[in-house]
Amino acid sequence: MAEPYRSTPIFDEITLPAALRANHQTKEGVWGIIRVLEGELNLTYVEPHAEQVLTPGAPGLVAPEQVHYVTALGPMRMQVDFYHEPPSL
């Protein structure tokens, strides 16, 4: 199983950066796994449009250069792990 080369700090519904709440994307060759530690988080893929509610048991996968944003659904804690190869969920 691939190991992340970097992880974000743990964010909550208050500290979740504005950049993650707006359209953004990973770089070429970089996959992300959004892991919810507590609560729920909505992951929205922009093109093609799709939404997924993330929970501690259901992380979200972001492919390289995939435009997306997240929305806190109440109190939550989350972290993003970044990989140079496709990770397993």
Automatic annotation (TrEMBL):
Gene3D superfamilies linked to this entry: Jelly Rolls
Domain TehB/YeaR-like: 6-80
Pfam families cross-referenced by the UniProt entry: TehB-like (PF09313)
Name of the protein in its database record: TehB/YeaR-like domain-containing protein
